[in-house]
TrEMBL record:
Signal peptide: none annotated. Its main location: membrane. It comes from Laceyella tengchongensis. Part of the ABC transporter complex PstSACB involved in phosphate import. Responsible for energy coupling to the transport system. This is Phosphate ABC transporter ATP-binding protein, PhoT family.
Amino acid sequence: MNPTAISVKNLDLYYGEKQALKNIHVDIDERSVTALIGPSGCGKSTFLRTLNRMNDLIPNVRIEGQILIKDTDIYSDEVDVEMLRKRVGMVFQAPNPFPKSIYENVAYGPRIHGLNDKKKLDEIVERSLRGAALWDEVKDRLKDRATGLSGGQQQRLCIARALAVEPDILLMDEPTSALDPISTLKVEELVQELKKNYTIVIVTHNMQQAARISDKTAFFLNGDLIEYNDTDKLFSNPDHQQTEEYITGRFG
Ligand SMILES: Nc1ncnc2c1ncn2[C@@H]1O[C@H](COP(=O)(O)OP(=O)(O)OP(=O)(O)O)[C@@H](O)[C@H]1O
Ligand SMILES: [Mg+2]
């Protein structure tokens, strides 16, 4: 069994009066893939964003409870949120490269963290693009604009951009929902590769995808975490009837 990377205890989240997460408890394993599933509006993205404090950017959000990463409560006052987001990177649903070159997209994070050494940046760009399984496709056109890449390549570029600052944890919110089947497969293969070195938490609406790529799955419904289980178990013999109903397509 892997050690715990993220420990969530008694987590409640409110948007104004509305409670979007209800008393969530979860321990997420290091160097593994954890899938978050559940119907639209159940709180998957909200939960994912609590893990690197992206909800801080939304007005009227109130969060109670604890999220421990390496024994530090990420909501405590002494936490440097910039450093937290460096350690806990994020990839979004629609690929969102900056309107810059491929090279500059990947070098951006290290640069804002103060790195200017050209040789070191070159190394990071190559390593990150290799890590995102994109290097061979772009190595001869690093100066081209990133927006000229295909959607699938852009998404892998966004993964490379996240890897460039050497995170421990990668959060992915429906990273393949805008991609064609072949690009989706590439990202899925990449996730399998990345979990050797990173802890990955991924939201997906695609249950086959969750079953294929994750080690554990969390099923959310109306802000409650209904079931958190080994993926094989959750999809073959879930402990809860609501999970059974959801995975067999009876609602959601
Ligand atoms: N910025 C916000 N302000 C107010 N309410 C919000 C905000 N973001 C989300 N919510 C509400 O919180 C609940 C959970 O939303 P969330 O986006 O986390 O769901 P989700 O499971 O990711 O859904 P989807 O599968 O459609 O992406 C919903 O009722 C939503 O309307
Ligand atoms: Mg969402």
